[in-house]
Amino acid sequence: MRIGRGRWALLAVLLLSQGAYAHHGWSQYDPERFLELTGTVREASFEHPHAVVRLEMRQKVWAVVLPPPTRAERLGLTPQTLRPGTRVTVVGHPHRTHPDEVRALRIVLEGRTIPLR
Questions:
Q1: 3-class SS of residue 48
Q2: 83 alpha-carbon distance from chain centroid
Q3: What pLDDT digit, counting tens, does each position of 92-109 carry?
Q4: Cα–chain-centroid distance for residue 101?
Q5: pTM, whole model, 2 decimals?
Q6: CA distance 111 to 16
Q7: What CA–CA distance (Å, rounded) separates 35 from 45?
């Protein structure tokens, strides 16, 4: 069976739309609740679709979801500014089902508040 260009294009659109749908699940975060977390960066990952910081705070490690890497870097958040050991404060919405994950709205780094949304 031969698959024509139209079917390949349709398949590509379907596969890409699934990825986009899976990526933008902001409804998984509770917009009615805010958390303010102050802790130490354990590690930072600048991979698509979003940069993520592992923030250690009182024996617990939070996954802090930041903007996509290119946007984060334009805002001054780089692997160098968020290196392990850096102290930061994050304000964001908690994940509805993952009790250790937060979507960051702003971050305070070295006395500078950086709005992320």
A1: coil
A2: 16
A3: 999 999 999 999 999 999
A4: 9
A5: 0.78
A6: 40
A7: 21
